[in-house]
């Protein structure tokens, strides 16, 4: 065997050491840059309140700890004409993934349990007596999208649901009362984006579903093309643009539909124009396709983000933000009627999860601290919140582990 | 890391007791192995006294006359005895009661956590295998390491001794890759001070040196290579230590301890005698106050010692060796915390092995080579075949030293640990002890199963009577359950797969355990979710609420509506019903942590129960 010369041997050892060093240094180096991902579509948090003929319903997450398994979503109702709220969370299913409610123009409310942990489909419950009794509906065999407007109820009993796989599923027939539902895919994000209406919008994703007062399905999403509102109505099997025209000041902004719902004979949409510190909120109201839209002035969010959006009676819209907004300077703002200006509400009580506009012009702030819900009320002309009620929710911590 | 561990508590009394029992049983077998080998040796020596007196065989002709083997040089003695003791100590550490369950989750997983994904994948594979068979794996680690230790200590010379070095390399590599995540060399923060490149890596280097042929024993070149390699390594470590931005220069930063102080602070917080933690805490405080100076000292020390080793000049390596040993001991006490204190220690870390390696290198360079034995080569049998034949003769064992006999016994001990593990690895199914640890064992029963008449997921009526002639594995599942029931369904499905062809004689049956969401739409959605829709012998039964409530009552199942968004609370039980409709076993069926290992274990338990009944019918 040839003898390795000393210098060569040392060079070899040095090479091994260099390789070893390279491995050590390389592993400590920052990861390589990757292509910038598209900005996420703005979303509306799931804490919310909606109004139906039965009353005002509010959804809020309670419990809470470092573990998401101890976040339990609760449903409260303030029956029409009543002053007090009641806990009416539907039983039978763990709701750690979130509750999404849909009410029609009549009585009745559907609640969807967003999947969590090992559950991957969406159980559904219905109440027709203000939450006193619930009956199970056939589940949606997919995960409902994480948006408060992901489920809609048609007056005739059909359901329209947005799923996490980017489809809009509609129950066939009007069996929501009967308990047994079958679902068909009404649209997919990709197919809708490929339609002329979708292309004009540059549809990036679906964010809300609704029915018109006449029962036509509406889908809404985020547009990447500036100045276009991604609200689509299905007419004769074709999806057509159905969104409002925007003021010229927003023509250069990308628009996302955060909420879309029909109450009575009116459809209301909450829109976000722009992203980041330039983002603004505005609402729009219409009586249905073909009818004119009325829009509100924009609310400049500044550094704040939307924490909750609620839809009240007669087109009322209440928003809660994570910080003071530029337009009003407060965290809570209210639109009391179609086309009205944003009204700043007094500083909300600590722990406020959502706002619930009432029929008499009052606004309730639902504040949460672990298993306790405090209801603070602000009458129409008042300037201070008054504690109206406290509800202790018997949360079973650890029951979902 | 999914699948990395069994999810059981490392103190689980069932597993701990089983592990202790296994070690005691295998320990007795190990003693028996040594006794048997020793007895055979003594017997042969008594029968073949000529052979016992010395080499050459009883007749003096059978084996070729061999010259006396060369004396083992001091450097090799240091390595062999030193690493033999370390392996023995590591084996004893592996016998800690918590080790069987705890090693994957408490040792391997944290070690791999900062490594790249591909390293985690490799390590995860091993951790999962371990967690499937914790008894066998835990015991194997004990006996393999004890065996290697005894082997190295006992067999001083000859092929058996060299083979011990190779086995040390082989097992050392296994430990280095799977137990130490490649010694952490792919993780950020690599530093010699914390033990890089892993103690087992040093074991491997020592094993290679022990396995060197005898002609290498007599060459100073061996020592020069060892020291030069160590020198280059230390210089590399010095560069890494000095590399900016790795957190070693500052004692603190942004109110947080630096990398070294953070490490020692966490070591000090582990359970150990107060005096030791006090030393480490004091050092941590010193490093926080003088981080730059401490790191500068480390960089300079590594550089100077490494450079001195690289020269291979005795007058330089002697003081360098002293300095290196002092540095190693200081690091071992103040930074590595003796390596095995606190938590589940598996070895004394890398400083003692490094010190042994450096000492051996020094001795190999400085001590006069052993005089070559004249005529050794000529005395050997002419061919490998002849040597092999000679080695298999009884005379060879009779003439063997007691050390070689002990080495043979050590090989038996290694096989004692490795063979059950290898056999277990051949099975893809986890040990049922995991399920028993979670839910306990079930007693044998024999009573008529309550009848039921319900509807399956396809809308067909099913009664218990209609299932006669088949073994029925029956449980109760909530179709909208978010945690346990999907796991239990998977366990049932796996049990069906494990049954193989016997599957056609078994019905996997679940009955809805939810008084709200019990409609057929839910059973179908659940089947879809769990991939059970196409399983031919899977039945998910439901009915009207009164029908279900009657069945729940008959089988002692509570299905309770809980408030405020909580899941239905229901009993988790599985019944094993024989072909005549009689309940033969009732199992607690809480799936525990639901890891891949525990799911497999429950499936194995169900399969065993079904196969037991099938074998009786």
Explain what you see.
The complex is a heterodimer of chains A (401) and B (617). Chain A is mostly beta strands and 401 residues long. In chain A, strands 17, 18, 19, 20 and 21 form a 5-stranded antiparallel sheet that branches. In chain A, strands 1-2-3-4 form a 4-stranded antiparallel sheet, with no helix packed on it. Chain B has 3 domains: 267 residues, no CATH class; 147 residues, no CATH class; 184 residues, Glutaredoxin. Chain B contains 24 helices and 12 strands. Chain B has a 6-stranded mixed sheet. In chain B, strands 1-2 form a two-stranded antiparallel ribbon. In chain B, strand 6, helix 21 and strand 7 form a beta-alpha-beta unit. In chain B, helix 10 runs antiparallel to helix 13. Chain B is flat and about 95 Å long. About 3% of the residues of chain B have low confidence.
Give a quick rundown of the structure.
Chain A has 401 residues and is mainly β. Chain A is 9% helix and 40% strand.
Layout of secondary structure:
The complex is a heterodimer of chains A (401) and B (617).
Chain A: H1 6-28, E1 48-52, E2 55-63, E3 71-79, E4 86-87, E5 99-103, E6 109-113, E7 122-127, E8 135-140, E9 151-153, E10 159-162, E11 167-171, E12 183-188, H2 189-194, H3 196-201, E13 203-211, E14 217-223, E15 231-235, E16 238-241, E17 255-263, E18 266-273, E19 280-286, E20 294-295, E21 299-300, E22 306-311, E23 317-321, E24 332-335, E25 343-344, E26 352-357, E27 363-369, E28 372-378, E29 386-392
Antiparallel strand pairs in A: 1-2, 2-3, 3-4, 5-6, 6-7, 7-8, 9-10, 10-11, 11-12, 13-14, 14-15, 15-16, 17-18, 18-19, 19-20, 19-21, 22-23, 23-24, 24-25, 26-27, 27-28, 28-29
Chain B: H1 13-47, H2 49-53, H3 74-94, H4 99-112, H5 117-132, H6 134-154, H7 158-179, H8 199-210, H9 214-217, H10 220-242, E1 252-253, E2 256-257, H11 259-268, H12 274-289, H13 291-311, H14 314-334, H15 351-366, H16 376-379, H17 384-391, H18 394-399, H19 402-425, H20 433-439, E3 444-448, E4 453-455, E5 461-463, E6 471-477, H21 484-499, E7 506-512, H22 520-530, E8 538-541, H23 545-554, E9 559-560, E10 569-570, E11 573-577, E12 582-588, H24 596-616
Parallel strand pairs in B: 6-7, 7-8
Antiparallel strand pairs in B: 1-2, 3-12, 4-5, 6-11, 9-10, 11-12
Helix pairs in contact in B: 1-6, 1-19, 3-6, 3-8, 3-15, 4-5, 4-6, 5-6, 5-24, 6-7, 6-19, 7-8, 8-15, 10-13, 10-15, 11-12, 12-13, 13-14, 14-15, 20-24, 21-24
């Amino acid at each position: 065997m040839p003898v390795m010369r000393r210098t060569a041997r040392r060079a070899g050892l040095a090479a091994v050491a260099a390789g070893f060093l390279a491995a050590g240094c390389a592993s400590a180096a920052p990861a390589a840059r990757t292509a910038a991902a598209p900005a996420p579509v703005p979303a509306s948090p799931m804490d919310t309140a909606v109004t139906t003929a039965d009353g005002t319903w509010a959804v809020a997450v309670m419990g809470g700890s470092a573990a998401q398994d101890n976040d339990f979503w609760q449903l409260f109702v303030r029956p029409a004409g009543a002053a007090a709220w009641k806990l009416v969370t539907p039983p039978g299913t763990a709701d750690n993934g979130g509750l999404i409610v849909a009410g029609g123009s009549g009585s009745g409310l559907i609640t969807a349990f967003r999947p969590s942990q090992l559950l991957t489909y969406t159980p559904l419950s219905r109440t027709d007596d203000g939450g006193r009794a619930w009956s199970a509906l056939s589940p949606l065999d997919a995960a409902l999208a994480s948006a408060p407007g992901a489920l809609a109820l048609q007056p005739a009993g059909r359901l329209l649901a947005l799923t996490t796989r980017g489809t809009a599923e509609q129950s066939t027939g009007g069996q929501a009362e009967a308990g047994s539902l079958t679902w068909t895919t009404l649209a997919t994000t990709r197919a809708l984006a490929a339609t002329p209406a979708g292309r004009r919008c540059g549809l990036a994703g679906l964010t809300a579903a609704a029915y018109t007062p006449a029962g036509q399905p509406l889908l809404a999403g985020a547009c990447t093309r500036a100045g276009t509102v991604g609200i689509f109505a299905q007419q004769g099997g074709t999806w057509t643009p159905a969104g409002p025209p925007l003021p010229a000041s927003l023509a250069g902004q990308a628009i996302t539909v955060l909420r879309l719902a029909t109450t009575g004979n009116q459809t209301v949409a909450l829109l976000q124009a722009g992203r980041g510190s330039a983002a603004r909120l505005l609402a729009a109201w219409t009586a249905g396709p073909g009818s004119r839209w009325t829009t509100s002035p924009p609310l400049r969010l500044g550094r704040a983000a939307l924490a909750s959006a609620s839809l009240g009676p007669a087109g009322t819209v209440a928003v809660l933000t994570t910080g003071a907004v530029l337009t009003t300077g407060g965290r809570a703002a209210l639109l009391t009627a179609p086309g009205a200006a944003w009204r700043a509400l007094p500083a909300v009580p600590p722990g406020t999860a959502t706002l619930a506009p009432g029929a008499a012009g009052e606004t309730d702030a639902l504040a949460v601290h672990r298993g306790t819900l405090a209801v603070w009320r602000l009458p129409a002309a008042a300037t201070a919140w008054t504690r109206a009620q406290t509800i202790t929710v018997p949360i079973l911590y650890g029951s979902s582990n | 890391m999914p699948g990395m561990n069994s999810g059981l508590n490392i103190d689980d009394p069932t597993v701990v007791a089983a592990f202790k029992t296994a070690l005691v049983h295998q320990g007795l077998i190990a003693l028996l192995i040594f006794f048997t080998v020793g007895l055979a040796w003594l017997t042969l020596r008594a029968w073949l006294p000529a052979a016992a007196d010395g080499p050459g065989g009883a007749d003096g002709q059978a084996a070729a006359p061999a010259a006396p083997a060369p004396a083992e040089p001091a450097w090799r003695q240091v390595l062999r005895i030193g690493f033999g003791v370390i392996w023995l100590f590591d084996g004893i550490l592996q016998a800690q009661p918590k080790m069987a369950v705890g090693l994957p989750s408490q040792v391997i997983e944290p070690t791999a956590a900062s490594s790249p994904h591909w390293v985690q994948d490799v390590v995860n594979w091993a951790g999962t295998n371990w967690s499937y068979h914790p008894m066998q794996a835990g015991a194997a680690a004990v006996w393999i390491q004890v065996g290697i230790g005894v082997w190295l200590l006992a067999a001083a010379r000859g092929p058996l001794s060299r083979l011990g070095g190779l086995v040390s390399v082989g097992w050392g590599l296994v430990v280095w890759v799977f137990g130490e995540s490649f010694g952490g060399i792919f993780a950020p923060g690599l530093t010699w001070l914390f033990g890089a490149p892993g103690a087992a890596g040093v074991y491997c280097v020592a094993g290679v040196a022990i396995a060197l042929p005898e002609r290498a024993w007599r060459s100073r070149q061996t020592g020069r290579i060892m020291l030069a390699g160590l020198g280059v390594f230390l210089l590399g470590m010095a560069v890494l230590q000095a590399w900016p931005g790795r957190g070693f220069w500052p004692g603190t930063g942004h109110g947080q301890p630096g990398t070294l102080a953070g490490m020692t602070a966490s070591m000090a917080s582990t359970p150990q005698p107060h005096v030791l933690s006090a030393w480490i805490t004091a050092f941590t405080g010193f490093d926080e106050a003088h981080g730059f100076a401490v790191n500068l000292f480390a960089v300079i020390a590594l550089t100077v010692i490494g450079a001195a080793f690289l020269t291979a000049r005795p007058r330089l390596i002697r003081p360098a060796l002293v300095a290196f040993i002092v540095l190693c001991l200081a690091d071992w006490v103040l930074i590595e915390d003796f390596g095995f204190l606190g938590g589940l220690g598996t070895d004394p870390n890398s400083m003692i092995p490094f010190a042994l390696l450096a000492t051996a290198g020094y001795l190999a360079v400085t001590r006069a080579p052993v005089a070559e034995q004249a005529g050794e080569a000529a005395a050997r049998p002419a061919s490998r075949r002849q040597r092999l034949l000679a080695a298999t003769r009884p005379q060879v064992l009779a003439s063997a030293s007691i050390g070689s006999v002990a080495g043979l016994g050590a090989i038996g001990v290694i096989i004692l640990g490795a063979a059950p593990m290898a056999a277990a690895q051949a099975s893809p199914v986890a040990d049922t002890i995991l399920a028993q640890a979670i839910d306990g064992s079930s007693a044998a029963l024999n009573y008529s199963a309550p009848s039921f008449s319900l509807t399956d997921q396809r809308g067909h009526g099913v009664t218990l009577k209609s299932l006669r002639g088949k073994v029925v594995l029956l449980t109760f599942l909530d179709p909208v359950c978010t945690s346990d029931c999907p796991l239990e369904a998977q366990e049932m499905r796996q049990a069906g797969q494990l049954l193989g062809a016997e599957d056609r004689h078994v019905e996997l049956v679940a009955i809805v355990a939810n008084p709200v969401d019990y409609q057929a739409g839910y059973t179908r959605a659940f089947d879809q979710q769990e991939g059970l829709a196409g399983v031919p012998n899977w039945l998910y039964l439901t009915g009207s609420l009164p029908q279900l409530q009657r069945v729940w009552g008959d089988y002692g199942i509570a299905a309770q509506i809980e408030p405020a968004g909580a899941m239905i609370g229901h009993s988790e039980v599985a019944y094993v019903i024989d072909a005549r409709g009689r309940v033969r076993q009732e199992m607690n069926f809480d799936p525990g942590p639901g890891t891949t290992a525990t799911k497999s274990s429950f499936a194995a338990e169900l399969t065993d129960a079904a196969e037991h009944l099938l074998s009786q019918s």
